[in-house]
Amino acid sequence: MPWTEKGLTDADYLAAFDLVIDPIAEAFDPDLVIIAAGFDAAEGDPLGGMKVSDQGYALMTERLLQLAGGKCVAALEGGYGLTATASAAASTLGAMLGFATPPLSSRRRPKRSTVETLGKIIDVHKEKWPVLASDEHRSMYRATLEATRVAGKEKN
Amino acid sequence: MRRGDSDDDEGSAPTVAPGTVDDLDDLAAALSGIELASKAPENREGSAADPDTILARALAGIAEDAVSTPPPSTKGDMPRRSPRLKPFPKTPAGTGGMGDGEEWRKPKLVVRYKRENATPATSAANTPEKETPKESFETARESFSEVKEEEGGQEESSPAPVSVATLASRYVVVKPEVDIVKPEDDQIEDEKDQPRSAPSPAIKSHQVHRKPRSKVKTKPRDPRSFAAFREMRREETKAETEADQLASMLEKKVSIAELDTPSRRGGRKAPARAVRSGEDVGVVGLCYSDVMELHEGPAQHFERPARHAATVARMKKDGLEDKCALIAAREATDEELLTCHSREHLAYVADAFDHTSDEAVQGVGDIYWTEHTERCARTAAGSACEAADAVASGTCHRAFAVVRPPGHHAECARAMGFCFYNNTAVAARAALAAHSHVNRVLLLDWDVHHGNGCVSLYFIFIRAIVLTACFVQLSQDPGCPLRRRSGNVRVFTQVRRGFLPRDWRHGRSWNRPRHRVQRQRAVDGEGFNRRRLPRGV
Fold first, then answer.
1. Please, how many CA atoms are within 13 Å of residue B508, restricted to the half-sphere of its CB?
2. Cα(A75)–Cα(A89) distance, rounded to whole angstroms?
């Protein structure tokens, strides 16, 4: 995901999962999932500049545990804020251990730029992954875009 | 609830839909007709015939008892009022009455009133009793003012007014008339005064489309009440959010032990400890080793041993480590590493540290070398391989490997970005090679930085797919595969310095016109920031 701006949150990452990663991954149907788990997108990281919380990491892990019958390996990569990395890694491991994570509140919506970026990605990958060209997926994308629009209005 | 009450009692129906106005008109007309007929049909007929007698009766009635039922005939005797129009509804004492002229000018409001009044009017007996003295005052005043006008000198008009004048002159003498008129005048004064301070319903009636201000609406607008409102709203949103969470958790059939989100913001909370019901997690492996803390660079370097130590300490503190099956770390073998890296690269990593030098930490830029570097890098790759192997073979269901140095920037023959061996890529290929039932591996990189190593290593590898979540900083990560259509190729060439296009050092080589502008600016020495150049160019 070539993010175009910093300060993205759980909602943006989960939107990427919703719109791009999950459909492709399900279509790919892997036997094993390996996560290069860099936690430098966590809130408080000196290099990343993103704002993903522990909850977001746990939710992303849960999404990936749905694949390949739960066969999942995570290996620590980046993550340069000690506390941020530690707690994010702990929440990821917690998700692997089956601890439930409360889902994101419906008030937290992805940024519009994020969804537009995801739209470009979908356009590029549509040819190779027919899942992304399906009507269902298109309507989901539209719904997500609508959701961001509403969020923007609220902000203003 | 309160609103409904006010609708019924005070006659403050909020709006009348535009389409229904005519219907209401008709209904009101019909109802008023019924009302009048039930009261005094003979009077109505008489009014058309002989206004004098009617007025006389009216005045006499007022003089005799103002408080009792008003003479219904007065409705008929005012020539400029349609029979449909009735005086303004009874208003609470002190709020003032409805002037006739206003009522005339704004028939819509009358319609609304009619509708309100129509409901009690269905029980015909109530209507006359309900009418207050004020109403009778109004009607009397009107007739009386007409009389006064006649007295003023319009004697040459029709014969009927003349006789009215005579009647009125008699009437003026009558005592009670003074008592009746006076409160009326007071009320008029009141009406004049009131709009300044608090508009009475009568004045309010000019604004037909506006809802009469009810008690509920007229809250004092002081900042304290706003603060209270904000506080209330905050509580509401909080409650809604919680309800949201609860609903979706119930939907997922999650047993709820704790609703608090594990966030680093408010205190360091442990993750929620509710185990999902109906799911067998199986054995979860955890792999870590102190060996990986030996690779220690400059004090201020971001990639430091404390990352590993802090992560493991946190897992122990949260009690997660106890729940996991420990996987022994090991060093990666040459075979495993050679699936991803070239033999030259292995030799380079092994020999990069100059043992003859006095410096304990060598190297420039993001990569540094110590005497333990190779061992640590191998342990990291080996641990990842071990974890993947454990999961692929079924020993563990899931596994987490706390490893450092990281690996997703490491390419086939290049160590960069704190990375030496590409741990995850090596693990994936080792799992693919060792286990026949593993045919497809999904390698997802959710690091902010572009995992160029993973992408380049899997670019031509069909059995595995790489999804990267990365943040592109043009100065550091010149190409991200998904950024442009030809992105993958670009990544593959850009990261190998030997293949760089000549003008890449100027930044965005793919945007030629812009690049030309930039180069021209560089020549001119304006607006060119040398710090944007990639390192080493």
1. 16
2. 10
Whether the Cβ atoms of residue B443 and residue B465 lie closer than 8 Å to each other: yes
Restricting to A residues 21-60, those with a Cβ less than 8 Å away from any Cβ of B are 21, 24-25, 28-41, 43-50, 53-55, 58, 60
Answer yes or no: pTM beyond 0.80: no
Cα gap B62→B13, rounded to integer Å? 33
User: Do A89 and B243 meet the contact criterion of CB atoms below 8 Å apart?
Assistant: no
Chain B residues in contact with A80 by the CB 8 A cut-off are: 302-303, 307
List C-alpha distances in Å: B434 to A111, B119, B339, B385, B465. 43, 88, 12, 10, 18
Q: Domain count for chain B, please give it.
A: 3
Answer whether A72 sits within 8 Å of B398, measured CB to CB: yes
Residue B180 lies in domain = 2-204
Q: Which two tokens stand for residue B287?
A: 């792999």
Residue B14 falls inside a structural domain? yes
The last residue of one of the domains, among B204, B229, B246, is B204
Q: For residue range B87-132, what is the model confidence (pLDDT) as tens digits?
A: 555 545 444 444 444 445 544 544 444 444 444 444 444 444 444 4
Encode pLDDT of B208-256 as tens digits: 565 555 555 555 556 567 677 778 778 777 877 777 776 676 666 554 4
pLDDT (tens digit, 9 = 90+) per residue, B519-534? 444 444 444 344 444 4
Q: Which of B13, B50, B43 is nearest to B128 (CA)?
A: B43
Q: Which residues pair with B362 in a beta bridge?
A: B369
Q: CA B8 from chain center: how many Å?
A: 35
Q: At what angle do helices B343-351 and B373-393 cross, to 10 degrees?
A: 130
Q: What is the rounded distance in angstroms from the CA atom of residue B149 to the CA atom of residue B448?
A: 91
Q: Which residue, B246, B263, B243, B264, is CA-closest to B255?
A: B246
CATH code of A10-155, in short, is 3.40.800.20
Mutation pick from A97, A124, A128, A154 vs chain B, by most beta carbons of B within 10 Å, is A97
Q: Which residue has the higher pLDDT, B486 or A26?
A: A26
